[in-house]
Amino acid sequence: MKISFEKVKKIHLIAVGGMGMGSLAGLLKEKGFEVSGSDANIYPPMSDQLQKLGVRLDEGYRAENLLPRPDLVVVGNAVSKTNPEVVALLQNEIPYCSMPEALKEFFLKGKKSLVVAGTHGKTTTASILSWLLTEASLDPCCFVGGILKNFDRSYRFGNGPYCVTEGDEYDTAFFDKGPKFVHYNPYAVLLGPVEFDHADIYKDLPQVLDAFEKLIGVLPENGLLVASADNPNTISLAKKFKGNVITYGFSPEAQFRAESFSFGPAGGAGPTGTSFRLFKLDQFLGVIESPMMGEHNIQNLLGVIALLLQIGLSLDQMRRGLKTFQGVKRRQEVRGVVSDIVVIDDFAHHPTAIAETLKAIRARYKGYKLWALFEPRSNTSRRNTFQEEFASAFQGADQVVIADLYQPEKIPEGERLDISKLVGSLQIKGIKARFLPTVDEIVATVRQEVSSHSVLLVMSNGGFGGIHDKLLISLGEPSHGGSFHS
Asked: Where, residue-wise, is CATH 3.40.50.720 in the chain?
């Protein structure tokens, strides 16, 4: 069906509660469209963001949600063609498109599209890039998979020449099984580490690499590819691009390289004081200070610096922006401190991300006992794809608590992560690990056993039953002798 996008005024989004769809709803609202949306389960922070925007939200999927008739329906990739609203829009011949198509049509046309891609670090990297462009008065449009604290939202509607897009390799919609990021008309691609992920739609690493090859394939030869020199898969992909390639990382072969890392002292919820020496080949460019924790975030920042230098920003402009960068919600976010017990929320769900996050927290909070509280919730982490890798990933923790699989019935029994086996593997390695199925059991156990000078690192790509607030409330009760400081 040919869509007359220029005539569209009313837009409805099916599955609006996801970060990508919710961000699109915000952008559309700010551009002046009349926007509504529906979802089966909308929870914070996206529900809060949409309500503040005045987007009409319909709980549950029903044909009547398409009344009055919209000019266009954006179909999220979380729904199938049997969805009641999808059935209704097809029967009534209402124009529809995917989220990436809508983003391309309404926001990327006429812009220099900066696409951030890779298995790890996309959200943080895209957020830093967005903020530094904003602080440099370049008024970017931004579309990110997390809530930037500086914006208090996951997007920014700007009129400047650049649009920053977090590029996702997940499929686009039930009618388009290709990766989302091929729709984003890249002017430049910042490509971080690439590993196997999304076991529900990709059978192996070669299939994942094929998706990223498609992204490289739509990058024009006069465009720019900024690639991680520390990941062999990324370097292999970069060699397929015939245009300008800039590399970054810790590798001696990287064109932009970081050396001499230092991390701030432990304790509290203040800035980390991370710093490093920046080199371009053998030329020392200066010392860079960052508010973010961990070597992986140094790598994320290196990619941003390499890209921004290519498009004309100075290091002084970037330094000024970094001083005011507040981070991203759910990325090493300190949710509260009670009696020197620090509760941190993080999105980590892939073994590599878990290991790097634990390493970063350990460096930041030297001498603290580190608890890792993990909910296997993503399509990959609920599977046994990384059964052995998870056992290695948690070695940086003193105590490990694994919750029950989220909606295990949606994963075939023979493919599910074996939590008992994982706990046993960790115990063999000398780590105190246990399986506590429910949030209430976890909170009760932590309250009973945790001591001062500890970090509770909560890792899940979902809500985890509100465990963060429940922990803080439990620890802050008078019988515990603590007080709450956000």
From this structure: 5-99
Q: How does 231-244 read in b/e, with b if 16+ C-beta sit within 10 Å? A: bebbbebbeebeee
The pLDDT of residue 402 is above 80: yes
Q: What is the pLDDT of residue 265?
A: 57
Tokens found for residue 103? 């983003």
**pLDDT (0 to 100) of residue 1:** 65
The fourth-level CATH superfamily of domain 333-485 is Mur ligase, C-terminal domain (3.90.190.20)
pTM, full prediction: 0.84
For domain 5-99, give the CATH number.
3.40.50.720
Mind listing the pLDDT tens digit for each residue in 342-399?
Answer: 999 988 888 888 998 898 888 888 889 999 999 999 888 899 888 888 888 998 899 9
- pLDDT at residue 271 is higher than 60: no
User: Which of 442, 458, 460, 457 has its CA nearest to residue 378?
Assistant: 460
What's residue 480's pLDDT? Answer: 37
What would the pLDDT profile of 120-135 be if each residue is shown by its tens digit?
Answer: 889 899 999 999 999 9
Residue ranges, CATH 3.90.190.20, the chain = 333-485
**CATH 3.40.1190.10-classified regions of the chain:** 110-323
CATH, domain range 110-323: 3.40.1190.10
